TrEMBL record:
Function: May be involved in cell wall biosynthesis.
Organism: Aquilegia coerulea (Rocky mountain columbine)
Family: Belongs to the glycosyltransferase 37 family.
Membrane topology: Single-pass type II membrane protein
Record-given protein name: Fucosyltransferase
Any GO CC annotation of this UniProt entry: Golgi cisterna membrane
Pfam families in alphabetical order: XG_FTase
EC number assigned by the record: 2.4.1.-
Length: 483
């Protein structure tokens, strides 16, 4: 509306410290410049180098995007002849990384950001397969040129790309169909970077393989993993990465806020909910509940764990068992709004009742809200995914976060927010763990399935002990994260 566009204009930082570029049409994507009205200013400023690389990327994208002359020429290489494998691709003006949708929405955002960082590091252009709803959920992130892969892209039979595809880099290495010394290279390669990838697929993340990959105009990847931490272990990217991110824990925080702007439909869900339930509280607490337990939720042990966590860490106050009304002047009562996200409503009911049935010992008023309870994950169902995105984003507008182990849904919220959440440990044998939760060391997402093979020596290594800024994750012990 007019009032909010005026508020945005008066806001000096609608470009998020130079992360975003000016000049987009505001109405076609309200969230891009209005996010400053809802989210606290980030204490993490993007480096001026990151800002200039983003502007440079935007120019490249404009020059190479869908249906540009360079795009058309590079696409021709995919069409010319049946024997793609023996065709020498030759140098091209524009090189691409195509991202194929896979897994839930949280995973999708993490992998798009990973692919985009790879594109920045290797001067490629990122194009995304729209799947069922990428175009419906997100605004275009780059000025004047779409990031959606055209529907008439010649290799659009994406479901044939999977672990066993002969076109995958891993399989081509296995059959010696490709090597750096060949002067005949294919015009495209499929990179299988899903959690079920094998040691050969993982060579994508080796320094030695980058010079070969650089010669391939089209890289097509399917991934459900946040592979950013492993890019930091590739020595030829080291300098560039430290210029881009002098603070290494801000990768998704910056790239996520740069790339993912809710579409107007989703922005409506976010802002209506925020205004109605969260805006007026003195503090907002987000609790993201995602269980991977057998049986029918809600689980008593998970409920116990959540309550133990927020009481022990003094995130929410105790209730007074005597039920005597506490006499404080109502005028100076602090209020907290608790935003719960979960596929189920059981936890919400219990926490809401807890604060309704008894007074808090501090006199604070606690409002408890949950936007939806979808019961089942229904990835690619349009309205379901809109709600999922709206809820991830709403969580990112809170001041304090509690998240669940293993969940990329929570990772996205924490990184966009710029918060280090308390993470609920995964219960074992249907028992609440003690301690129930733990404050994590950085807001970066966890790479759940990183390679553990040393690229040169081909022996297993502890990749969490190689450099001080990469550690195993708090919630996934084999995982890796930037700290
Ligand atoms: P992860 O599986 O926890 O890593 O997160 P993903 O986002 O990749 O996949 C889980 C999917 O389940 C989400 O994308 C939603 O479709 C659905 N989902 C899980 N938790 C919630 C929730 O709290 N709210 C809503 N609306 N959907 C959820």
């Amino acid at each position: 509306g007019d009032a909010s566009s005026q508020a945005v204009d008066e806001h000096k930082d609608k470009l998020l410290d130079g992360l975003l570029s000016a000049g987009f049409d505001e109405k076609s994507c309200l969230s891009r410049y209005q996010s400053v009205l809802y989210r606290r200013p980030s204490p993490h400023k993007p480096s001026s180098y990151l800002q200039s690389r983003l502007r440079k990327y935007e120019d490249l994208h404009k020059q190479c995007g869908p249906y540009t002359e360079s795009y058309n020429k590079t696409v021709e290489k995919l069409k010319s002849g049946h024997h793609l494998w023996t065709l020498y691709s030759g140098p091209t003006e524009c090189n691409y990384i195509v991202w194929i949708a896979s897994s839930g929405l949280g995973n999708k955002l993490l992998t798009v950001a990973s692919a985009f960082l790879y594109a920045l590091l290797t001067n490629r252009v990122l194009l995304v397969d729209r799947g069922k709803d990428m175009g419906d959920l997100f605004c275009e992130p780059f000025p004047e040129m779409s990031w959606l892969l055209p529907l008439d892209f010649p290799l659009n039979q994406f479901n044939k790309f999977e672990r066993r595809s002969p076109e995958s880099y891993g399989n081509m290495l296995k059959t010696n169909a490709i090597s750096n010394t060949m002067n005949s290279l294919p015009p495209f390669l499929y990179l299988h970077l899903n959690h079920d990838y094998d040691d050969q697929d993982k060579r994508f993340l080796c320094d030695q393989d980058q010079s070969l990959l650089q010669k391939i105009p089209w890289l097509i990847t399917r991934s459900n993993e946040y592979f950013v931490p492993s890019l930091f272990l590739i020595s030829s990217f080291e300098q560039e990465l430290s210029n881009l991110f002098p603070s290494k824990v801000t990768v998704f925080h910056h790239l996520g806020r740069y790339l993912f702007h809710p579409s107007n439909a989703v922005w409506g869900l976010i802002t209506r909910y925020y205004e109605a339930y969260l805006a007026n509280a003195d503090e907002r607490v987000g609790i993201q509940i995602r269980t991977f337990e057998h049986g029918t939720p809600p689980f008593q042990h998970v409920m116990d764990q959540i309550v133990a966590c927020f009481l022990k860490e003094k995130i929410l106050p105790e209730v007074d068992p005597s039920q005597e009304p506490i006499l404080t002047a109502s005028g100076n009562r602090k209020s907290k709004a608790v935003l719960i996200t979960s596929l189920h409503s059981g936890y919400f009911d219990k926490i809401r009742n807890m604060y309704w049935e008894k007074p808090t010992v501090t006199g604070e008023t606690i409002g408890v809200y949950q936007p939806s309870h979808e019961e089942l994950q229904q990835t690619e169902n349009n309205f379901h995914d809109r709600k999922a995105w709206a809820e991830m984003y709403l969580l990112s507008l809170t001041d304090v976060l509690i998240t669940s182990s293993w969940s990329t849904f929570g990772y996205v919220a924490q990184s966009l927010a710029g918060l280090k959440p308390w993470i609920l440990y995964r219960p074992e044998n249907h028992t609440a763990p003690d301690p129930p939760c733990h404050r994590i060391v950085s807001m970066e997402p966890c790479f759940h399935a990183p390679p553990s093979l040393d690229c040169r020596a081909k022996t297993r290594i502890d990749n969490g002990a190689l450099v001080p800024h990469i550690r195993h994750c708090e919630d996934v012990s084999v995982g890796l994260k930037l700290v």
